[in-house]
Q: What sequence folds into this?
């Protein structure tokens, strides 16, 4: 039961040394670098700058789907299959934070335990507690660390709720949407937008309920995008069925991205997002760093509330002088 | 605080690997079978081998009083024997991350 | 009409008492607390009267001992005819060490054997497997081969004793070793008496010593039912165990409900296999916890007998009255033992053992006072056995059948527990049955919630535990620490490697191949396991074949 604090605790190692070790394949350095990113430490910026030139090798696969659909088990099996094909695999599993204590019990490790000691595997759990730069930023910065560590594939598991589903699709090279058949009389419904984001669809737990209905439904509704028709794979992750087919589908998609030039397009789209996010974060930092921030902020809040000032004007006042033009 | 639960029946290798990848501050081990004298020191040894001796190791379970000094000597920071209140254990981990 | 009037009169009389005598008393001496709770946090009333038993006749509810619904006991004379079996759970180190402990306990008056296995054995690994590191003989005896089993029972006539073995996921392999060891002694299988625990469902719910997923595991269990009914007719092929459910933190009501729900699940699987219910139901036995709360525990056993008799007769259509009997072993609550002032555990255990005897147990294990720390040392184990002997020979409790029958409190509590059990049966059914409920984590969550509540009650001092949160002394416990010897480990490892070196490898491989095929087919696996054991296959090798075919279980995750 290892425990990890959310705040800076132990003395941090100097970044250049950590990055050097990372590039030599040192897992401890990878673990520490991800912590820097996760905790949004100032050194993270330097670390990521040093890491960036060494990334871009790994194929990043995002997994999304409702809680309980079996994503962790599926990823565990997929890791084993990919290892069988001599691929090094990183996993970033995003676990929900307990709404009660602000702490988190991250349990995905259990379902992936049997692949954890393999030297060609690196699994990292991340809690969804508040990151200044948003969940996606920290997650995909962690992906970058695993990319630089030399992983051939990095699998990202999301909580499958809210924004994260759409976010993952904008950043991963391949997005896998996992669904399961409903049991009993429940009517199978799919979340809005889910049909637009997947590159591969998985119907897991095919031994439960009526998988045929779900598969037929998906087939009927899915359309080709950019010349790629998302395949629908039936799996039973616990028994390990369908995992080879899933691995094949992902490999086919990777090849497709390369051959069509779509990989480059996706990378550029992601870069746009990330530049903007970083800009937002930097601005927020600059604003916070202003010494009179607290006092100004309180005063302005009162002014806005009593209609002496509008919120946009207040925001501009907080920004560094050079950014104060109306937006 | 975040707790990475690794599940039951983990080998020392599993535990150390998880601790490194998750970059934890502390490891809590529980053993009720009587194998603590072998397994707890093994975890410490493997951590050192992986240059991760700075990660705290705490142990608990069915552990006779006379084993505790030996475990501490082997690098187990703290041992929670039978009857330890939950609060005491939680308090230890709360301070463990604060550079203790 | 007449009953109604009686009822009214009783009610009036109770009200009078409450308004006069009681009110006066409460004025001068208020009660110690607002609410009194059992160990399972069940509220207990101030006073129980015939009014609490209204609505049912005594005959329906309680009946006579040895008759349906067996509330008062499964036998008409109970302990006047034969005392319960004093069966002490024992095992540590290698087979030689435990064999010596068996003989020691027998020489001090133990009347049945009970084997505790070590962790690797419980998980189906041999002593020399990497998974077994550090675990040899620490919490039970290591048995990796037929050779070990023969040594474990050397000098003990297996026709004359009854042996209980606490083994679950690899139960069929260990049982096969016992049967082969008996064969080697010249004992016919039909003469063997004993029990294998073989209760896999509670492993997923509470004890967590599983290997394979539920479905193949249940198939292995039913294989033993079928094989036992034909070949080893006096053997109890399962001991459906609430003990571990309770130890994991369940309440008495949960223990009762989950155990009986599991029991009925086994019956369903047996019937689905095509077995006639009366052909195997009389070999189903039970195992309950004996916890601190005297009356709640007694009520639990009585409710269990009544529910089982009714379900077996009415739901499963068993015709033979022997199929209706819930026969059970009891063990005092290990979880109640304290590390602080360990000698006080002797007193706790005595009260718990009394509950089991007043509840009509067929067999009993009393924990030793040092078990919060270790497998008991010899002296502590003997004291524990003496506790039973005092109850049997000095307390006078066994002189009459069900001495507490008719107690307003006890009968009301029995009814309450019975109702709680049926409420749980409905919930389990609502989740699709026992195995789907396991996969959804239902039992696990219910138990965890109860365990957490109990621990909180102790730490908040809402519940007094002597020596733990009250009446505390500052002294180190003093007892002899039992250590497993390095020599035993060496002997065991040497024996294993010699077996692997010297056995007929062709015969051995062929037997394991046949076992693999049997596992892949619908054939009963027992004969093939027995053949593999005879061909000197080890426990780990047999379980490896099954692991290959059946896969491993993955636990649902709970927060």
A:
């Amino acid at each position: 039961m290892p425990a990890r604090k959310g705040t800076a605790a132990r003395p941090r190692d100097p970044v250049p040394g950590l990055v050097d070790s990372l590039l030599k394949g040192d897992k401890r350095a990878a673990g520490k670098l991800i912590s820097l990113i996760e905790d949004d430490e100032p050194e993270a910026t330097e670390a990521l700058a040093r890491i960036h030139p060494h990334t871009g090798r790994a194929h990043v696969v995002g997994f999304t789907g409702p809680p309980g659909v079996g994503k962790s088990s599926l990823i565990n099996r997929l890791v084993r299959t990919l290892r069988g094909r001599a691929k090094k695999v990183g996993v970033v599993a995003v676990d929900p934070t307990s709404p009660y204590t602000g702490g988190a019990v991250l349990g995905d490790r259990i379902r992936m335990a049997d692949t954890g000691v393999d030297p060609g595997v690196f699994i990292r759990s991340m809690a969804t507690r508040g990151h200044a730069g948003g969940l996606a930023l920290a997650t995909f910065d962690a992906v970058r660390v695993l990319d630089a560590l030399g992983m051939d594939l990095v699998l990202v598991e999301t909580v499958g709720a809210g924004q994260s589903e759409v976010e993952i699709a904008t950043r991963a090279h391949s997005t896998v949407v996992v669904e399961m058949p409903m049991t009993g009389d429940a009517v199978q419904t799919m979340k809005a937008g889910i049909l637009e984001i997947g590159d591969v669809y998985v119907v897991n737990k095919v031994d439960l309920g009526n998988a045929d209905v779900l598969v037929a439904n998906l087939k009927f509704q899915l359309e080709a995008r950019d010349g790629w028709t998302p395949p629908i794979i039936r799996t039973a992750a616990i028994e390990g069925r369908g995992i080879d087919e899933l691995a094949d589908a992902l490999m086919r998609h990777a090849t497709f991205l390369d051959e069509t030039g779509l990989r480059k397009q996706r990378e550029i789209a992601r870069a746009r997002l990330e530049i903007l996010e970083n800009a937002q974060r930097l601005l927020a930092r600059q604003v916070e760093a202003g010494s009179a921030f607290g006092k100004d902020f309180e005063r302005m809040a009162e002014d806005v509330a009593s209609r002496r000032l509008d919120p946009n004007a207040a925001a501009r006042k907080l920004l560094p002088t050079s950014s104060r033009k109306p937006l | 605080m975040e707790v990475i639960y690794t599940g039951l029946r983990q080998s020392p290798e599993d535990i150390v690997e998880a601790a490194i990848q998750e970059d934890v501050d502390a490891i809590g081990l529980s053993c009720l079978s009587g194998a603590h004298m072998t397994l707890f020191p093994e975890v410490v040894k493997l951590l050192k081998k992986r240059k991760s001796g700075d990660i705290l190791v705490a142990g608990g379970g069915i552990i006779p009083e006379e084993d505790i000094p030996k475990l501490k000597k082997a690098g187990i920071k703290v041992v929670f024997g039978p009857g330890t209140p939950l609060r005491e254990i939680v308090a230890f981990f709360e301070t463990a991350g604060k550079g203790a | 009409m007449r009953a109604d009037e009686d009822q009214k009169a009783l009610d009036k009389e109770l009200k009078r008492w409450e308004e006069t005598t009681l009110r006066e008393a409460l004025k001068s001496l208020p009660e110690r607390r607002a609410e009194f709770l059992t160990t399972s946090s069940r509220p207990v009333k101030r006073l129980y009267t015939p009014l609490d038993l209204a609505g049912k006749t005594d005959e329906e509810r309680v009946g006579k001992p040895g008759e349906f619904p067996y509330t008062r006991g499964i036998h008409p004379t109970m302990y006047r005819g034969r005392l319960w079996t004093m069966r002490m759970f024992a095992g540590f180190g290698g087979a030689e060490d435990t064999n010596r402990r068996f003989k020691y306990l027998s020489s001090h008056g133990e009347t049945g054997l009970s084997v505790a296995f070590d962790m690797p054995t419980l998980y189906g690994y041999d002593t020399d497997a990497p998974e077994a590191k550090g675990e040899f003989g620490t919490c039970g005896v290591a048995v990796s081969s037929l050779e070990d089993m023969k040594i474990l029972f050397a000098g003990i006539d297996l026709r004359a004793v009854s042996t209980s073995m606490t083994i679950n996921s690899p139960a069929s392999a260990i049982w096969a070793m016992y049967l082969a060891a008996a064969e080697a002694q010249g004992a016919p299988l039909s003469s063997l008496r004993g029990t294998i625990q073989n209760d896999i469902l509670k492993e997923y719910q509470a004890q967590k010593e599983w290997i394979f997923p539920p479905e193949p595991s249940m198939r292995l269990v039913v294989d033993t039912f079928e094989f036992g009914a034909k070949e080893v007719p006096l053997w109890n092929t399962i001991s459906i165990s609430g003990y571990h459910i309770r130890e994991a933190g369940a309440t008495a009501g949960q223990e009762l409900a989950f155990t009986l729900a599991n029991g009925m699940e086994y019956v369903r699987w047996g019937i689905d296999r095509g077995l006639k219910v009366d052909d195997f139901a009389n070999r189903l036995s039970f195992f309950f916890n004996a916890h601190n709360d005297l009356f709640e525990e007694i009520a639990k056993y009585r409710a269990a007998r009544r529910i089982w008799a009714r379900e077996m007769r009415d739901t499963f259509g068993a015709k033979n009255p022997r199929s209706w009997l819930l026969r059970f072993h009891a063990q005092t609550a290990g979880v109640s033992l304290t590390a602080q002032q360990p000698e006080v555990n002797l007193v706790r255990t005595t009260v718990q053992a009394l509950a089991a005897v007043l509840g009509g147990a067929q067999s009993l294990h009393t924990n030793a006072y040092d078990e919060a720390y270790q497998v008991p040392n010899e002296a502590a184990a003997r004291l524990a056995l003496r506790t039973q002997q005092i109850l049997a020979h000095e307390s006078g409790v066994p002189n009459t059948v069900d001495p507490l029958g008719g107690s307003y409190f006890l009968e009301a509590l029995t009814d309450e527990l019975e109702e709680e059990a049926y409420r749980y049966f409905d919930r389990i059914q609502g989740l699709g049955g026992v195995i789907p409920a396991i996969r959804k984590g239902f039992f696990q969550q219910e138990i965890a919630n109860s365990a957490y509540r109990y621990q909180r009650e102790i730490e908040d001092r809402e519940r007094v535990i002597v020596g733990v949160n009250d009446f505390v002394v500052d002294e180190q416990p003093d007892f002899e620490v039992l250590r497993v010897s390095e020599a035993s480990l060496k002997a065991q490892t040497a024996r294993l490697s010699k077996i692997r070196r010297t056995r007929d490898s062709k015969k051995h491989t062929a037997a394991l191949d046949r076992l693999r095929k049997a596992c892949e087919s619908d054939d009963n696996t027992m004969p093939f396991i027995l053949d593999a054991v005879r061909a000197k296959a080890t426990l780990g090798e047999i379980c490896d074949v099954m692991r290959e075919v059946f896969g491993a279980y993955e636990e649902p995750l709970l927060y």
